[in-house]
Amino acid sequence: MTEMVRKITLSRAVRTMQELFPEEYNFYPRSWVLPDEFAIFLAEVHLMKERNPSWKPTFIVKPDGGCQGDGIYLIKEPTDVRMTGSLHSRPAVVQEYISKPLLVDKLKFDIRLYVLLKSLEPLEIYVAKDGLSRFCTEPYQEPTLKNLHQVFMHLTNYSLNIHSGNFVHSDSCSTGSKRTFSSILSRLSASGVDIRKVWSDIISLVIKTVIAMVPELKVYYQSDIPARKPGPACFQILGFDILLMKNLKPILLEVNANPSMKIEHEKEVSPGVFEYLPSAVDEDVKVPVIRDTLRLVDPHKKKRKEESSPSRPTEEEEEAAASEDQEDLPSEGLMEKLELEPSRSPEPSMPALCLKQVFPKYAKQFGYLRLVDRIAALFLRFLGVKGTTKLGPTGFRTFVRNCKISNSGFSMAAADILYIDITRRSSGLGVDQRDAGMGLHAFVEAICFLAQRRYKSLSLHEQVELLVDFCEYNLAALDEKRLVAGRVAPERRAALVTCHQDRLHLSPAAHAAPRPTSPAAHKFVDYRSPRL
Q1: Beta strands in 372-416, from DSSP E residues, in sequence order
Q2: 504/43: higher pLDDT
Q3: What is the per-residue pLDDT across 175-206, written as a single tens digit (0 to 9) for each?
Q4: Strand, helix or coil at 439?
Q5: On the CB side of 131, how many CA atoms lie within 13 Å of its CA?
Q6: pLDDT surpassing 90 at residue 276
Q7: Which of 131, 335, 437, 502 is the most buried (most CB within 10 A)?
Q8: How many Cβ atoms sit within 10 Å of the Cβ of residue 50?
Q9: Rounded CA gap, 436 and 497, in Å?
């Protein structure tokens, strides 16, 4: 997870989804990786300024492995990037700066929202019903050359603003430089804002971001976690940093793999002497997150429940539960109903759950976005050696051959050239340089290239979906063929060779039963006609 939420890796994962589903992933600022994409950054900004001369952007540069605001700075021109030797040893992401944020008390703020990723397979996501609002400590002004360096005005990082003389510690959750998000929502609601819509957009952002992260997480997971029984083997609490624009559109700033769970703050009582004081707002938000995480991931909870109530539920209870589930699931297209309603506690003696399940609860609305997840399944199938995260040339050739992608227009030699070209180009962006080969990101690029050649006049996500369907169909047919062969082989061996009194007798092998025709066999017939 730590690797996955690094700024370069996360930007790369979201960018892939932006290319496939541009309208669904417009909550993440335009981003470029430095130094690898510096020339592209220059060219694209120049082109955008030519098209719109009135566009006066500001950009924010973030070191890849940075945290707590370390090394972040703002620029007005691409040429202002500090192209020093450290940039090559410490890559960075440059993003378009959001210059029109929502202000409260004339101050810029962001939202730290806690998200529990309970398991990858099946995917389970929970969102805390409250979060932290972290404020800058100087009144906000839109970026100019004169104020770019004023970090207390532009950067919301708590670890930076705590050193400002204007930082206010408060015992109240609705005042000071750190407040609960619910207190901000209350103020917005009082001014007529539809906070249900705000929550809906935030939950949608969280689910889409996790969907973008999951494919590569699965690659890391199979490499690091030993094979075991089905079910969650690990979990993680993530810290989503979200900015609300002036029009209340949420923007993803970054995701933290290990968000701080401290519930106190330091106070300097004398020069060089500090004491720790409780923080009411941190305690109100973080304690329920930890408590509910332990309740949700408790591996013995199901067993205890079965032991305490071994009898099966009645038909009336099952129908009531099913009816309740249907009421909880909003109909497709009504995303404004996605909100964090208060949850009833399953244990009467415990407080109500603060973590609300959003996936698979809303899987119906977002399932179509899991296209890269299907590509990752293909990637993992041909990965070969357990523990590696890179696909070798032999594995890629096997993929092309088994999926019947090679034909008169695309030979195996062309597949080798494609592998070399994409692997070489993407190696500069790889997080893990220890083993050579094609990573998942490069494999997705290869899939997109093949899909665009095979299927014309369609959007990219339609092209990729057709190619993935085609690959899955051919692999399913291959698996079925192997299964039939596996059932027939023992019968053949038994009939083929018998040994009696030191004499070897050969008898005719039994004929294999005809392969049954699957109803799905005709489903993808249209996908076979286009040729590369």
Answers
A1: none
A2: 43
A3: 999 999 999 999 999 999 999 999 999 999 99
A4: coil
A5: 26
A6: no
A7: 131
A8: 9
A9: 47
Which residue has better confidence, 324 or 442? Answer: 442
Which of 114-123, 195-204, 383-392, 414-423 is the least confident region?
383-392
Token pair recorded at residue 90: 């410490």
**What pTM does this model have?**
0.82
Domain ranges for the chain: 30-97, 100-307+327-365, 370-532
Return the structure tokens found at 501.
């009194």
Q: How far apart are CA 135 and CA 154, in angstroms?
A: 10
Asked if 105 contacts 139 with a C-beta cutoff of 8 angstroms, the reply is no
Q: How far apart are CA 506 and CA 61, in angstroms?
A: 76
Measure the CA–CA gap between 142 and 86, rounded to whole angstroms.
29
Task: Choose among 388, 400, 376: nearest CA to 470.
Answer: 400
The phi and psi torsions of 246 (rounded to 5 degrees) equal -60, -30
Q: CA nearest 211: which of 124, 83, 85?
A: 124
Domain 30-97: give its CATH code.
3.30.1490
Spatial distance between the Cα atoms of 331 and 362, rounded to a whole number of angstroms = 9
CA 48/CA 512 separation, integer angstroms: 65
Q: Which residue has the tokens 């592998």?
A: 419
Residue 458 Cα distances to 450, 463, 466, 469, angstroms:
13, 6, 10, 15
Q: Is the pLDDT of residue 321 over 80?
A: no
**CATH for 370-532 (3.40.50.2300, 1.20.5.170, 1.25.40.180, 1.10.238.10):** 1.10.238.10
CA dihedral for 217, 95, 74, 432, sign (positive or negative): positive
Parallel, antiparallel or unpaired: strands 92-96 and 73-75 = unpaired
Closest CA to 113 of 194, 209, 24: 209
14 phi, psi to nearest 5 deg:
-70, -35
- Read off the DSSP letter of residue 356: E
Residue 158's identity, in one-letter code, is Y
Here the tokens at position 507 are: 């008898």
Q: How many CA atoms lie within 13 A of 7 on its CB side?
A: 25
- Inform me whether the pLDDT recorded for 256 exceeds 80: yes
Report the distance separating Cα 232 and Cα 297, nearest Å: 8
Length of the chain: 532
User: Which two tokens mark 435?
Assistant: 């083993």
- Structure confidence by residue, pLDDT tens digits, 230-254: 555 789 999 999 999 999 999 999 9
pLDDT at 320: 44
pLDDT category at 319 given cuts 50, 70, 90 is very low
Quick check: helix, strand or coil at residue 134?
A: strand
